[in-house]
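A quick aside before the break. I want you to see a complete sequence-to-structure record at least once, exactly as it would be stored in a machine-readable document. Don't worry about memorizing anything.
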Amino acid sequence: MDELQRLLLELRRFTKARDWERYHDPKNLAMAVASEAGELCDVLRWVDNSEADRFARDPKHRARIAEEAADVGLLLLMLCDRAGIDLLQAMRAKLGRNREKYPAEAWRGKAWEGQALGTPPGATARAPRVAAGTVRPATGEPGLAGVDACPGGWVVARADAGLREVTFERVERLDELFREAAQGRVSVALDLPIGLPESGPRACDAAARKRLGTPRASSVFSPPCRAALHADDFAAAGAANRKACGRGLTRQIFELFPRLRQVDALITPALQQRVREAHPELTFAVLAGGGGLQFPKATAAGRKERLALLRPLLGPLDLLAPRRELGREAVRPDDLLDAAACLVTAHRIRHGRALVLPEGKPERDARGLRMEIAA
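That is the input. The structure line, written in tokens, reads:
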């Protein structure tokens, strides 16, 4: 048995002892690899290229690089094991294909195809394509996104780092957006609880209600305890939540369970650097400089009140056109407003201006996720 096989057996025992196999499907493991690769990039992100070798060999930095690289390696090994891939064999095969694809005589000292093919100096390069619905440029500072649940899935408000050219899109799942975040291409603020308690309420929810005051405090709902999340029906979920947390569930919260499960399956403690829980009403309160707003968001007066707060940051927002394009039955006006508010929150987080509740060290759930709300 070689060293890699022994390490794999250790990994299997480690995972089984903690009953983590349920979380380690290929999709989650691939997301985790991308997330940890982002952590590795963060170590060297702002190091000048000419200093990178010296920086990486410095013992005080090398230890952290080793730790992040180990996370990537372990997760990659687990992914290959789950998919039935012999990692060593796959790497050898890939190296062989690369030898054929990049012959040394043509590629020696060359970093891209134009060099290898002898493209004349000064030739105009073709501009990179930008995916439809994405306003972030292919280079430069990562983009921003605000997300809210809607009847048709999720509505995502996107903009570049300067909050210019706000666009809306609707997606059924958040896998691709979370993948972008894991790759460091976007910062996300999401109007849905991240981190679920084992028992009792979350301190961040209580702090948000106190900040909002009556009557907007009622917009902050208590998420289910983790024990209830995978219950099959409303009665079973209510019983599980009552046993764990001492309270039942409303039908409205139970209807959010599929969204909560989706986010809980995608998020990791490391990914919380890029994907943060937000609450639109709290953001509007911060923008207004006080407590909760006067009018409910579902009313014409409430929409007018909130659009006026967003205007200095996002410019005039037309909610009719994106709703018509995304589907009137799939997206409500207040869904678009909330996604836009979360977009502003993502911008405030990026620039270190966000209010984060509760104050001080946040609670963490059983998965190590921070239970906090940003605005």
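Two observations worth writing down. The longest helix spans residues 59-83. The chain is about 50% helix and 10% strand. We'll return to this after the break.
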